[in-house]
Write a structure and sequence with these properties.
Length: 508
Protein backbone atom coordinates (compact mmCIF):
# COMPACT_ATOMS: atom_id res chain seq x y z
CA UNK A 1 0.00 0.00 0.00
CA UNK A 2 1.50 3.33 -1.13
CA UNK A 3 1.49 6.41 1.06
CA UNK A 4 -0.30 9.52 -0.18
CA UNK A 5 2.52 12.02 0.40
CA UNK A 6 0.08 14.91 -0.21
CA UNK A 7 -1.51 14.05 3.16
CA UNK A 8 1.67 15.27 4.88
CA UNK A 9 0.21 18.75 4.43
CA UNK A 10 -2.40 19.64 7.08
CA UNK A 11 -4.00 23.05 6.24
CA UNK A 12 -5.10 23.98 9.77
CA UNK A 13 -1.66 23.27 11.23
CA UNK A 14 0.79 24.29 8.48
CA UNK A 15 -0.03 27.98 8.25
CA UNK A 16 3.37 29.63 7.84
CA UNK A 17 5.70 28.98 4.94
CA UNK A 18 8.48 27.68 7.22
CA UNK A 19 6.19 25.15 8.86
CA UNK A 20 5.20 23.50 5.58
CA UNK A 21 6.77 20.31 4.29
CA UNK A 22 8.53 20.68 0.95
CA UNK A 23 9.85 18.15 -1.54
CA UNK A 24 12.27 17.77 -4.42
CA UNK A 25 13.30 15.27 -7.08
CA UNK A 26 15.30 15.21 -10.28
CA UNK A 27 12.27 14.65 -12.53
CA UNK A 28 9.80 16.69 -10.51
CA UNK A 29 10.54 20.02 -12.19
CA UNK A 30 9.88 18.68 -15.69
CA UNK A 31 6.43 17.43 -14.66
CA UNK A 32 5.59 20.79 -13.07
CA UNK A 33 6.63 22.53 -16.31
CA UNK A 34 4.29 20.24 -18.30
CA UNK A 35 1.40 21.25 -16.05
CA UNK A 36 2.24 24.94 -16.45
CA UNK A 37 2.46 24.62 -20.23
CA UNK A 38 -0.98 22.93 -20.28
CA UNK A 39 -2.43 25.89 -18.40
CA UNK A 40 -0.68 28.46 -20.61
CA UNK A 41 -2.07 26.73 -23.71
CA UNK A 42 -5.53 27.37 -22.30
CA UNK A 43 -4.78 31.09 -22.33
CA UNK A 44 -3.64 31.38 -18.73
CA UNK A 45 -0.53 33.39 -17.83
CA UNK A 46 2.25 32.24 -15.47
CA UNK A 47 1.96 35.47 -13.45
CA UNK A 48 -1.77 34.98 -12.91
CA UNK A 49 -1.22 31.34 -11.92
CA UNK A 50 1.37 32.32 -9.31
CA UNK A 51 -0.80 35.19 -8.04
CA UNK A 52 -3.85 32.94 -7.52
CA UNK A 53 -1.77 30.34 -5.67
CA UNK A 54 0.04 32.94 -3.54
CA UNK A 55 -3.28 34.44 -2.42
CA UNK A 56 -4.05 31.18 -0.58
CA UNK A 57 -0.74 31.24 1.31
CA UNK A 58 1.48 33.77 2.93
CA UNK A 59 3.67 33.82 -0.18
CA UNK A 60 4.66 36.52 -2.66
CA UNK A 61 3.89 35.60 -6.32
CA UNK A 62 7.63 35.73 -7.10
CA UNK A 63 8.26 33.13 -4.36
CA UNK A 64 5.69 30.81 -5.94
CA UNK A 65 7.33 31.30 -9.34
CA UNK A 66 10.76 30.45 -7.92
CA UNK A 67 9.36 27.27 -6.38
CA UNK A 68 7.63 26.20 -9.59
CA UNK A 69 10.72 26.91 -11.66
CA UNK A 70 12.83 24.99 -9.11
CA UNK A 71 15.09 27.96 -8.48
CA UNK A 72 15.00 27.22 -4.75
CA UNK A 73 15.44 23.49 -5.43
CA UNK A 74 12.31 22.66 -3.46
CA UNK A 75 8.56 23.12 -3.64
CA UNK A 76 6.04 22.84 -0.80
CA UNK A 77 3.49 20.05 -0.93
CA UNK A 78 0.78 22.61 -0.17
CA UNK A 79 1.74 24.57 -3.29
CA UNK A 80 1.71 21.39 -5.42
CA UNK A 81 -1.81 20.61 -4.22
CA UNK A 82 -3.04 24.07 -5.20
CA UNK A 83 -1.23 23.86 -8.55
CA UNK A 84 -2.97 20.58 -9.36
CA UNK A 85 -6.34 22.01 -8.32
CA UNK A 86 -5.76 25.03 -10.61
CA UNK A 87 -4.67 22.72 -13.46
CA UNK A 88 -7.77 20.53 -13.09
CA UNK A 89 -10.07 23.56 -13.18
CA UNK A 90 -8.34 25.57 -15.93
CA UNK A 91 -7.67 22.58 -18.22
CA UNK A 92 -10.99 20.87 -17.35
CA UNK A 93 -9.34 17.59 -16.40
CA UNK A 94 -11.24 14.57 -15.15
CA UNK A 95 -10.79 13.05 -11.68
CA UNK A 96 -8.94 10.13 -13.25
CA UNK A 97 -6.49 12.44 -15.05
CA UNK A 98 -6.05 14.35 -11.82
CA UNK A 99 -5.22 11.18 -9.86
CA UNK A 100 -2.82 9.94 -12.55
CA UNK A 101 -0.76 13.15 -12.60
CA UNK A 102 -0.84 13.20 -8.79
CA UNK A 103 0.58 9.66 -8.68
CA UNK A 104 3.23 10.65 -11.23
CA UNK A 105 4.34 13.58 -9.07
CA UNK A 106 4.47 11.36 -5.98
CA UNK A 107 6.64 8.84 -7.77
CA UNK A 108 9.10 11.64 -8.65
CA UNK A 109 9.42 13.00 -5.09
CA UNK A 110 12.77 11.82 -3.69
CA UNK A 111 13.39 13.99 -0.62
CA UNK A 112 11.29 15.81 1.96
CA UNK A 113 12.21 18.99 3.85
CA UNK A 114 10.74 21.13 6.56
CA UNK A 115 11.94 24.70 6.83
CA UNK A 116 14.55 26.41 4.72
CA UNK A 117 17.57 24.22 5.58
CA UNK A 118 18.05 21.82 2.70
CA UNK A 119 20.61 19.83 4.68
CA UNK A 120 17.79 18.54 6.91
CA UNK A 121 16.40 16.42 4.11
CA UNK A 122 14.65 13.11 4.71
CA UNK A 123 14.09 10.27 2.29
CA UNK A 124 10.57 10.24 0.88
CA UNK A 125 9.30 6.78 1.86
CA UNK A 126 6.33 5.80 -0.26
CA UNK A 127 5.31 2.45 1.18
CA UNK A 128 5.71 0.46 4.35
CA UNK A 129 8.77 -1.81 4.45
CA UNK A 130 10.57 -4.04 6.97
CA UNK A 131 12.60 -1.35 8.75
CA UNK A 132 9.74 1.14 8.80
CA UNK A 133 7.51 -1.52 10.34
CA UNK A 134 10.17 -2.05 13.04
CA UNK A 135 10.22 1.70 13.77
CA UNK A 136 6.42 1.75 14.04
CA UNK A 137 6.42 -1.26 16.38
CA UNK A 138 9.12 0.28 18.57
CA UNK A 139 7.22 3.56 18.76
CA UNK A 140 4.03 1.72 19.72
CA UNK A 141 5.90 -0.03 22.53
CA UNK A 142 8.01 2.73 24.10
CA UNK A 143 7.80 5.80 21.87
CA UNK A 144 6.16 9.14 22.60
CA UNK A 145 4.89 11.65 20.03
CA UNK A 146 4.18 15.22 21.17
CA UNK A 147 2.79 18.16 19.21
CA UNK A 148 4.35 21.53 19.93
CA UNK A 149 3.24 24.96 18.78
CA UNK A 150 5.85 26.73 16.71
CA UNK A 151 6.04 29.86 14.58
CA UNK A 152 3.55 29.43 11.76
CA UNK A 153 2.12 26.09 12.82
CA UNK A 154 2.72 22.83 14.64
CA UNK A 155 5.92 20.86 15.15
CA UNK A 156 6.49 17.35 16.46
CA UNK A 157 8.74 16.04 19.21
CA UNK A 158 9.62 12.35 19.14
CA UNK A 159 11.10 10.40 22.05
CA UNK A 160 11.85 6.72 22.62
CA UNK A 161 13.41 5.26 25.74
CA UNK A 162 14.88 1.94 26.90
CA UNK A 163 17.16 0.69 29.67
CA UNK A 164 19.29 -1.17 27.13
CA UNK A 165 21.45 1.03 24.90
CA UNK A 166 21.66 -1.74 22.30
CA UNK A 167 17.90 -1.38 21.61
CA UNK A 168 18.31 2.31 20.80
CA UNK A 169 21.39 1.60 18.67
CA UNK A 170 19.21 -0.77 16.61
CA UNK A 171 16.44 1.85 16.41
CA UNK A 172 18.93 4.44 15.17
CA UNK A 173 20.11 2.06 12.44
CA UNK A 174 16.50 1.65 11.29
CA UNK A 175 16.08 5.44 11.20
CA UNK A 176 19.28 5.89 9.17
CA UNK A 177 18.25 3.23 6.66
CA UNK A 178 14.70 4.52 6.24
CA UNK A 179 14.80 8.30 6.65
CA UNK A 180 18.52 9.02 6.56
CA UNK A 181 18.23 10.47 10.08
CA UNK A 182 21.07 9.81 12.52
CA UNK A 183 19.76 10.15 16.09
CA UNK A 184 21.78 10.99 19.20
CA UNK A 185 21.55 8.51 22.08
CA UNK A 186 21.80 9.98 25.57
CA UNK A 187 21.12 9.03 29.17
CA UNK A 188 18.21 10.54 31.05
CA UNK A 189 17.81 11.22 34.77
CA UNK A 190 16.43 7.74 35.47
CA UNK A 191 19.66 6.21 34.09
CA UNK A 192 17.83 4.92 31.01
CA UNK A 193 18.89 5.54 27.41
CA UNK A 194 16.82 7.91 25.30
CA UNK A 195 16.54 9.25 21.74
CA UNK A 196 14.80 12.62 21.53
CA UNK A 197 14.50 14.88 18.48
CA UNK A 198 12.10 17.27 16.74
CA UNK A 199 11.07 16.38 13.23
CA UNK A 200 7.73 17.21 11.64
CA UNK A 201 8.11 14.75 8.77
CA UNK A 202 8.74 11.69 10.99
CA UNK A 203 5.91 12.84 13.29
CA UNK A 204 3.53 13.21 10.35
CA UNK A 205 4.37 9.75 9.04
CA UNK A 206 3.46 8.21 12.41
CA UNK A 207 0.34 10.34 12.85
CA UNK A 208 -1.07 10.45 9.31
CA UNK A 209 -0.10 7.11 7.75
CA UNK A 210 -0.16 4.92 10.86
CA UNK A 211 -2.78 6.77 12.88
CA UNK A 212 -0.80 7.15 16.10
CA UNK A 213 -2.22 9.70 18.52
CA UNK A 214 -0.02 12.35 20.11
CA UNK A 215 0.38 11.52 23.79
CA UNK A 216 -1.18 8.43 25.38
CA UNK A 217 -1.44 5.44 23.05
CA UNK A 218 -2.14 2.71 25.64
CA UNK A 219 -5.50 1.86 24.05
CA UNK A 220 -4.23 2.15 20.47
CA UNK A 221 -4.25 -1.05 18.42
CA UNK A 222 -1.99 -2.25 15.61
CA UNK A 223 -2.22 0.25 12.73
CA UNK A 224 -4.57 -0.79 9.95
CA UNK A 225 -1.86 -0.47 7.29
CA UNK A 226 0.24 -3.00 9.22
CA UNK A 227 -2.65 -5.45 9.63
CA UNK A 228 -3.33 -5.27 5.88
CA UNK A 229 0.34 -5.83 4.95
CA UNK A 230 2.27 -9.04 4.32
CA UNK A 231 3.26 -11.48 7.05
CA UNK A 232 6.87 -10.26 6.83
CA UNK A 233 5.75 -6.70 7.58
CA UNK A 234 3.58 -7.88 10.49
CA UNK A 235 6.48 -9.87 11.98
CA UNK A 236 8.81 -6.88 11.57
CA UNK A 237 6.30 -4.72 13.45
CA UNK A 238 6.13 -7.27 16.30
CA UNK A 239 9.94 -7.47 16.33
CA UNK A 240 10.15 -3.71 16.90
CA UNK A 241 7.48 -3.95 19.60
CA UNK A 242 9.09 -6.83 21.50
CA UNK A 243 12.64 -5.44 21.15
CA UNK A 244 11.50 -2.52 23.29
CA UNK A 245 8.58 -3.79 25.38
CA UNK A 246 9.19 -7.52 25.57
CA UNK A 247 11.02 -9.08 28.49
CA UNK A 248 13.40 -12.04 28.33
CA UNK A 249 13.40 -13.52 31.84
CA UNK A 250 16.26 -15.36 33.50
CA UNK A 251 14.08 -18.46 33.86
CA UNK A 252 14.05 -18.87 30.07
CA UNK A 253 10.64 -17.32 29.51
CA UNK A 254 9.45 -14.39 27.39
CA UNK A 255 6.81 -12.04 28.74
CA UNK A 256 5.00 -8.87 27.75
CA UNK A 257 2.70 -6.70 29.84
CA UNK A 258 -0.16 -4.97 27.97
CA UNK A 259 -3.16 -3.13 29.36
CA UNK A 260 -4.99 -3.18 26.01
CA UNK A 261 -6.74 -6.57 25.65
CA UNK A 262 -7.46 -6.09 21.92
CA UNK A 263 -3.82 -5.24 21.19
CA UNK A 264 -2.71 -8.30 23.12
CA UNK A 265 -4.99 -10.52 21.05
CA UNK A 266 -3.74 -8.91 17.82
CA UNK A 267 -0.14 -9.58 18.78
CA UNK A 268 -1.01 -13.15 19.68
CA UNK A 269 -2.47 -13.69 16.20
CA UNK A 270 0.87 -12.66 14.62
CA UNK A 271 3.22 -14.53 16.96
CA UNK A 272 3.07 -18.25 16.13
CA UNK A 273 4.70 -19.37 19.38
CA UNK A 274 2.52 -20.56 22.26
CA UNK A 275 2.13 -18.52 25.44
CA UNK A 276 -0.34 -17.97 28.27
CA UNK A 277 -2.47 -14.95 29.10
CA UNK A 278 -1.70 -13.73 32.63
CA UNK A 279 -2.99 -10.86 34.76
CA UNK A 280 -0.68 -8.80 36.95
CA UNK A 281 -1.85 -8.93 40.56
CA UNK A 282 -3.60 -5.83 41.81
CA UNK A 283 -3.75 -4.18 38.36
CA UNK A 284 -5.89 -4.15 35.25
CA UNK A 285 -2.84 -5.07 33.18
CA UNK A 286 -2.88 -8.31 31.24
CA UNK A 287 0.10 -9.82 29.57
CA UNK A 288 1.49 -12.73 27.69
CA UNK A 289 4.00 -15.14 29.16
CA UNK A 290 5.58 -18.27 27.78
CA UNK A 291 6.46 -21.39 29.65
CA UNK A 292 10.09 -22.40 30.10
CA UNK A 293 11.47 -22.45 26.56
CA UNK A 294 13.32 -25.39 25.08
CA UNK A 295 16.03 -24.89 22.45
CA UNK A 296 13.62 -25.17 19.52
CA UNK A 297 11.31 -22.54 21.02
CA UNK A 298 14.24 -20.23 21.82
CA UNK A 299 15.33 -20.34 18.17
CA UNK A 300 11.80 -19.37 17.14
CA UNK A 301 11.57 -16.48 19.61
CA UNK A 302 14.96 -15.10 18.57
CA UNK A 303 13.34 -14.13 15.25
CA UNK A 304 11.11 -11.66 17.12
CA UNK A 305 13.98 -9.69 18.68
CA UNK A 306 16.44 -7.53 16.72
CA UNK A 307 19.78 -9.27 16.28
CA UNK A 308 22.52 -7.69 18.39
CA UNK A 309 20.21 -6.22 21.04
CA UNK A 310 20.58 -7.32 24.64
CA UNK A 311 17.31 -9.29 24.66
CA UNK A 312 18.41 -11.18 21.55
CA UNK A 313 21.75 -11.92 23.20
CA UNK A 314 19.98 -13.26 26.29
CA UNK A 315 18.08 -15.78 24.19
CA UNK A 316 21.33 -16.62 22.42
CA UNK A 317 22.99 -17.18 25.80
CA UNK A 318 20.21 -19.55 26.87
CA UNK A 319 20.71 -21.43 23.61
CA UNK A 320 24.51 -21.56 23.53
CA UNK A 321 25.62 -20.63 27.07
CA UNK A 322 28.09 -18.00 28.22
CA UNK A 323 31.41 -18.16 26.37
CA UNK A 324 33.78 -15.42 27.49
CA UNK A 325 36.60 -16.50 29.81
CA UNK A 326 37.69 -14.15 32.59
CA UNK A 327 41.11 -13.49 34.10
CA UNK A 328 40.01 -12.81 37.65
CA UNK A 329 37.03 -12.42 39.93
CA UNK A 330 36.91 -8.62 39.59
CA UNK A 331 36.64 -8.84 35.79
CA UNK A 332 33.75 -11.29 36.07
CA UNK A 333 31.84 -9.02 38.46
CA UNK A 334 32.48 -5.96 36.27
CA UNK A 335 31.16 -7.66 33.11
CA UNK A 336 28.12 -9.16 34.85
CA UNK A 337 27.21 -5.83 36.44
CA UNK A 338 27.35 -4.09 33.08
CA UNK A 339 25.32 -6.64 31.17
CA UNK A 340 22.88 -7.28 34.03
CA UNK A 341 22.72 -3.82 35.60
CA UNK A 342 21.46 -3.36 39.15
CA UNK A 343 17.78 -2.49 39.33
CA UNK A 344 16.85 0.34 41.69
CA UNK A 345 13.99 -1.76 43.05
CA UNK A 346 16.36 -4.54 44.18
CA UNK A 347 18.12 -4.54 47.58
CA UNK A 348 20.93 -6.82 46.41
CA UNK A 349 23.57 -6.84 43.71
CA UNK A 350 25.39 -9.63 41.91
CA UNK A 351 28.54 -8.70 43.81
CA UNK A 352 26.77 -9.06 47.16
CA UNK A 353 25.34 -12.48 46.20
CA UNK A 354 28.80 -13.65 45.10
CA UNK A 355 30.37 -12.37 48.35
CA UNK A 356 27.85 -14.18 50.59
CA UNK A 357 28.06 -17.40 48.55
CA UNK A 358 31.85 -17.27 48.77
CA UNK A 359 31.63 -17.04 52.56
CA UNK A 360 29.05 -19.84 52.91
CA UNK A 361 30.71 -22.09 50.28
CA UNK A 362 27.41 -23.97 49.83
CA UNK A 363 23.73 -23.49 50.63
CA UNK A 364 20.28 -23.83 49.14
CA UNK A 365 18.34 -20.88 47.74
CA UNK A 366 16.07 -20.58 50.79
CA UNK A 367 18.95 -20.29 53.23
CA UNK A 368 20.78 -17.83 50.95
CA UNK A 369 17.62 -15.71 50.65
CA UNK A 370 17.46 -15.50 54.47
CA UNK A 371 21.11 -14.43 54.66
CA UNK A 372 20.51 -11.69 52.06
CA UNK A 373 17.11 -10.74 53.52
CA UNK A 374 15.35 -10.98 50.14
CA UNK A 375 12.63 -13.13 48.62
CA UNK A 376 13.48 -16.36 46.85
CA UNK A 377 11.92 -15.12 43.59
CA UNK A 378 14.16 -12.02 43.69
CA UNK A 379 17.22 -14.13 44.37
CA UNK A 380 16.48 -16.62 41.58
CA UNK A 381 17.46 -14.14 38.84
CA UNK A 382 20.93 -13.74 40.33
CA UNK A 383 21.42 -17.46 40.99
CA UNK A 384 20.50 -18.26 37.40
CA UNK A 385 23.09 -15.80 36.08
CA UNK A 386 25.77 -17.17 38.42
CA UNK A 387 24.84 -20.73 37.48
CA UNK A 388 25.23 -19.98 33.75
CA UNK A 389 28.53 -18.25 34.55
CA UNK A 390 29.73 -21.38 36.40
CA UNK A 391 30.42 -19.20 39.44
CA UNK A 392 28.11 -21.51 41.35
CA UNK A 393 27.54 -25.21 40.78
CA UNK A 394 24.11 -26.76 41.30
CA UNK A 395 24.02 -30.16 42.91
CA UNK A 396 21.73 -32.35 45.00
CA UNK A 397 24.30 -35.03 45.78
CA UNK A 398 26.84 -33.88 48.32
CA UNK A 399 28.67 -35.06 51.38
CA UNK A 400 27.95 -31.81 53.19
CA UNK A 401 24.28 -32.56 53.88
CA UNK A 402 24.46 -32.56 57.70
CA UNK A 403 25.15 -28.85 57.89
CA UNK A 404 22.46 -27.93 55.35
CA UNK A 405 20.06 -30.38 56.88
CA UNK A 406 20.50 -28.98 60.35
CA UNK A 407 19.96 -25.45 59.13
CA UNK A 408 16.98 -26.12 56.92
CA UNK A 409 15.65 -29.53 58.01
CA UNK A 410 15.84 -30.38 54.34
CA UNK A 411 13.77 -33.07 52.68
CA UNK A 412 15.87 -36.07 51.64
CA UNK A 413 15.72 -38.59 48.82
CA UNK A 414 17.14 -41.97 49.90
CA UNK A 415 18.70 -44.51 47.58
CA UNK A 416 16.65 -47.66 46.96
CA UNK A 417 18.98 -49.84 49.03
CA UNK A 418 19.09 -47.40 51.98
CA UNK A 419 15.31 -46.90 51.86
CA UNK A 420 14.58 -50.64 51.93
CA UNK A 421 17.17 -51.29 54.63
CA UNK A 422 15.85 -48.49 56.86
CA UNK A 423 12.19 -49.46 56.77
CA UNK A 424 12.83 -53.22 56.94
CA UNK A 425 14.98 -52.92 60.05
CA UNK A 426 12.87 -50.32 61.85
CA UNK A 427 9.70 -52.43 61.51
CA UNK A 428 11.53 -55.54 62.72
CA UNK A 429 12.52 -53.69 65.88
CA UNK A 430 9.46 -51.47 66.55
CA UNK A 431 5.76 -51.39 65.85
CA UNK A 432 4.46 -48.70 63.52
CA UNK A 433 2.61 -47.11 66.46
CA UNK A 434 5.82 -46.93 68.52
CA UNK A 435 7.73 -45.45 65.56
CA UNK A 436 5.08 -42.74 65.07
CA UNK A 437 5.05 -41.89 68.79
CA UNK A 438 8.85 -41.53 68.92
CA UNK A 439 8.86 -39.33 65.77
CA UNK A 440 5.68 -37.45 66.76
CA UNK A 441 4.06 -38.10 63.39
CA UNK A 442 0.84 -39.67 62.13
CA UNK A 443 0.68 -43.17 60.69
CA UNK A 444 -0.38 -41.67 57.34
CA UNK A 445 2.85 -39.64 57.21
CA UNK A 446 4.91 -42.74 57.99
CA UNK A 447 3.18 -44.77 55.25
CA UNK A 448 3.76 -41.93 52.74
CA UNK A 449 7.49 -42.07 53.56
CA UNK A 450 7.54 -45.82 53.15
CA UNK A 451 5.70 -45.62 49.80
CA UNK A 452 8.07 -42.83 48.65
CA UNK A 453 5.16 -40.46 48.18
CA UNK A 454 6.83 -37.87 50.43
CA UNK A 455 10.46 -37.09 51.23
CA UNK A 456 11.77 -37.62 54.78
CA UNK A 457 12.98 -34.50 56.59
CA UNK A 458 16.58 -34.48 57.75
CA UNK A 459 15.71 -34.35 61.46
CA UNK A 460 13.29 -37.32 61.24
CA UNK A 461 15.81 -39.32 59.21
CA UNK A 462 18.46 -38.66 61.87
CA UNK A 463 16.08 -39.93 64.57
CA UNK A 464 15.23 -43.08 62.60
CA UNK A 465 18.89 -43.91 61.90
CA UNK A 466 19.85 -43.34 65.56
CA UNK A 467 17.05 -45.70 66.66
CA UNK A 468 18.85 -48.40 64.61
CA UNK A 469 22.41 -47.22 65.33
CA UNK A 470 22.99 -47.10 61.54
CA UNK A 471 26.11 -45.69 59.88
CA UNK A 472 24.86 -43.95 56.75
CA UNK A 473 26.87 -43.48 53.57
CA UNK A 474 26.32 -39.85 52.36
CA UNK A 475 26.31 -41.05 48.76
CA UNK A 476 23.01 -42.86 49.48
CA UNK A 477 21.31 -39.51 50.22
CA UNK A 478 20.24 -36.69 47.96
CA UNK A 479 18.34 -33.50 48.63
CA UNK A 480 15.04 -32.98 46.87
CA UNK A 481 16.09 -29.35 46.37
CA UNK A 482 19.20 -27.97 44.75
CA UNK A 483 22.31 -26.98 46.63
CA UNK A 484 24.39 -24.10 45.30
CA UNK A 485 28.10 -24.61 45.79
CA UNK A 486 30.52 -21.73 45.18
CA UNK A 487 33.13 -22.49 42.53
CA UNK A 488 36.33 -20.86 43.81
CA UNK A 489 38.25 -21.73 40.63
CA UNK A 490 37.64 -18.55 38.59
CA UNK A 491 39.55 -20.03 35.63
CA UNK A 492 36.46 -22.18 35.00
CA UNK A 493 34.16 -19.17 35.00
CA UNK A 494 32.56 -17.83 31.82
CA UNK A 495 30.50 -14.67 31.33
CA UNK A 496 28.27 -13.26 28.55
CA UNK A 497 30.24 -12.33 25.45
CA UNK A 498 29.09 -9.05 23.88
CA UNK A 499 30.89 -7.45 20.92
CA UNK A 500 30.19 -4.01 22.33
CA UNK A 501 31.33 -4.77 25.90
CA UNK A 502 34.73 -3.05 25.68
CA UNK A 503 33.11 0.14 24.41
CA UNK A 504 30.60 0.35 27.24
CA UNK A 505 31.01 3.07 29.82
CA UNK A 506 31.23 2.09 33.44
CA UNK A 507 27.95 3.93 34.05
CA UNK A 508 26.08 1.39 31.96
Amino acid sequence: MEFDLFRLYVPNEDIGARSQISCTGEKLNSTINLILRDMIKKGDKIYHICKRISSKFNYHPSTVLKMLRNINEQVSIALLIELLNEWKEVCEKSSLEYENIKLKIQSEIEWLYCGSKLRNKIKAIKEVNINLAKIVGAHHADGCLIKEKSEGGMNYKFMIIDYYKSSLVAFNEWMVQIFGVNCKIKKDRSNAWVICFRNKIVGRYLEVFFGFPCGDKSMFNIPRIIKESTNDIKRAYVLGFLTFDGCVETNRTVSLGIKNKELRDELKSIIPQSFDIVKKDGTDQYGIKTGVLDKKEIRAWKKFFERGTEKWFKLNDYLNGFKRKVNNEEEAIEILNKIFPHQNSSNITLKKVITVLKELKYCDKFYLAKQLNVGVSTLFRYLHILDMSKIVIRTNNTEIFPKIGEEEDAKLILSKSLHNLLFFNIENKYTIKDICNKLNISEATYRNWKAKRHGISFSKFTTLSSMLNMNVNPLDIKFNKKIFKFNDNYQEWVVPDRPWFNSLSLSL
